[in-house]
Amino acid sequence: MERAREQTSAGELTGPAQRPEAAETALELLVHGVGGTTPEEMLDDPRTVRISGDDVAAVHRRREDADAERRPDDYRGRPVPEAYVWCNLTSGNGTRALWLLLLPFMVVNLAHWMRPAGRGRRRTVRLYGLLVRLTGLTLTVLLVAAACEVALDLAAWQCAGTRACAEEHSWPAFLSPELSHDGWWSRPGRRLALACVVPTALTCLLWYLSHRTWSAYESQLPVSRAAEPEEETDPTALGRPGFWYGRRLVARLRAAHTAAGLLTVTAAVGGPAASFDSEAAGPVLLGFLGRSLYTVLAAGAVVVLWVVCRRGRSEHRLDRELDARLVRALPVGATLLLVLTLLYAGWSRPGWRSTGRLPGDAAFGGIALGQGLLVVALGVVASVLYRGLPGGGAAVRTEDTPADTRTAMRGLAGPAVAMLACALGGVMSGGVAQRVADWLDGTQGSLPGPPVLLTWQASVIPLTLLVLLGLCGRLALRTWRLRARETRAVERDYRGEPKDRARTRRIAGTRAMAALTDRAPLAVGTFSFVTLLLGSGALVGALTTGDTPARAARGSYAFVHGAAETAQSLGSWLIGLGFILLVASGRRAYKDPAARRTIGILWDVGTFWPRAAHPFAPPCYAERAVPDLTWRMVTWTRTTGGRIVLSGHSQGSVLAAAAAWQLRPSVRRRVALLTYGSPLERLYGRWFPAHFGPAALVSLHREVDCWRNLYRLTDPIGGPVRLPGDCGPQVDRAPLEDPLVYGRTLENPLPAPILGHSEYQADPAFAEERERLLARLRHDVPGPRPDGDAQGSSGRSSA
């Protein structure tokens, strides 16, 4: 196909405008969903060619349609089908299962986008984003502190300093003062300096993954557009020029989080040496260096907090500038401080012996307390935004803005998810520490073990699981009752068919299971509240007793002591088992297609959003996919002057809507939208109301040429768009029958399958709605001016 335009470094288009002979051509752009597929399946043809893109994401056509623009007469009355395949952005080899180690970072990033709509309350919205970014920073510190606990405290300090542990494991023999006969590495400070390689390598790995994935996935420039005024009156921010290009913020946060991780390692290495120097009558120089270390660490922490607290994303313009000095200075400065601290800690200190455990209780307690306070503050801010209380601007709702009554958890979804992110971070850090401590000590009991708080947190895991089982039981009971009601509904829907009790129950059960998606807010809210409550109890127990639950309960009744011991032992195993299952589930998700479809739903929702709160979260595939789709639609309309049917299934419908919002109004009016199995309202509208709320979806319906949505009652993901007033019937078709045929007929002698979320194209209603959209677009629409919509004589056009 002839290339009509060339991309410049500014993300603009240059070259000739449309070819008049192709102005009557229509394009059907297909976008697949979560599970991924092949272009051959999407286009229903074994012979396809890639016309644009690369091995990661590309646009494909049938071979016979490759030069359709040169033969417009052959396509009068029918569209040119194209398939945009983006599954390689999220699927891959089994090594991507390691991304599940970044799950807490992804979850806290989700909390940033779950805020309620806050039009006109700019300061409150910024405060919400600031609190989420600070929560994300605590997760980075927690993860690095856990690595320090394992490597520095458990291995280098406790095990190497205990003869029994060093004899049991051969590798720490050269670190043991007794086994190595006071060798050079046996000094406590030098042991800590050597062990800090592990958390330092972890921090560097997180930095590398964030930088590499940005270059591979998120560095695509959107189509250039003029900057917009910074107002919060837009129905959605998804249409702003800089929404899908957050390079500056990610780079700034990456520098701050990397520096925070290195400062955490510095404190873990230098803190014990500085404490010894302040208590012992050692050289004056070492005491001065210790005090200077604390001062510089405090100053570094203040700088990191200042960088994180600076203004967040710049969405109103395409921000291609970087804070180059800041991005380089922060990690480099933290690295230099770490190197100097290693030299300071490695200085010979006669009489310094490693006894007990390192002072990690205060560190982990401070992190847990800070996370709890941040989550509570986030809940207060979210409530202010949701209820429309005075917060620096006008009221949220007007007569022209539909009321948002289906927001998940009354606007508290963000704080609840942030709490889950903190809980996941605690489970992962505590699980690793508990497992390593059990492995090093075995049944000897010669090591003090991990910090008391981690043991208390592990002890409340069984209670948390009991609550989770109770929630599952309640949902199962509700599903059983709903299945009974759906059984009667199925009998009404297939009235006149010969009754088959097993068939009816199977259809009703599928509908009832699909309805569980709508109960997710109750489960998430309850579980988050219980997690906050039990986590607070664990923190109070650790601070007040200063000992493990089993030891603290020794003087109590026998059954209390027994229950404490059981909870402590069981929680220790469960927290380690949960960490192992998390990694195993992630690897299975990338090897087993069925598991990929199940786990991939939540994973693809999480990685859809840009990294606005945590730079170490998994990469955002939409920052590649949405510009791809936007570029394709802009260049098509610019080159041919034709019309587009944008057809999206499942997550593809979300990408399609996001791409449509990125278009200029003149181009958006040439687009017809067909969505099926779409979570636009059912998941995104409820959980992300500020971006996919009723006002945003209504504006999309009014600005595209037309929009039709298909769904089934057996679909656990897709659902109606539920636009208010007269807009609803214009978009949503009545639920499709599933199965298409209840019993055996002459045309269908075998039982028809229950399709649920898949194969919407197999329903005759799909072809009917597709034809209606195409017929609506066949009327004459004037093409864009050759010199662009709003660029005058400059010869340039933008989306």
UniProtKB/TrEMBL annotation:
Sorted alphabetically, the keyword list is: Membrane, Transmembrane, Transmembrane helix
Where are the compositionally biased (Basic and acidic residues) regions? 773-788
Domain of life per record = Bacteria
Has UniProt tagged this entry with the keyword Transmembrane? yes
Q: Where is this region: Disordered?
A: 1-24, 773-799
State which residue ranges cross the membrane.
Answer: 127-147, 192-209, 255-276, 288-308, 329-347, 367-389, 410-433, 453-477, 520-543, 570-590
Instruction: Name the InterPro entries on file.
Output: AB_hydrolase_fold (IPR029058)
DNA damage listed as a keyword: no
Provide the protein name.
Lipase family protein
Q: Which organism is it from?
A: Streptomyces fagopyri
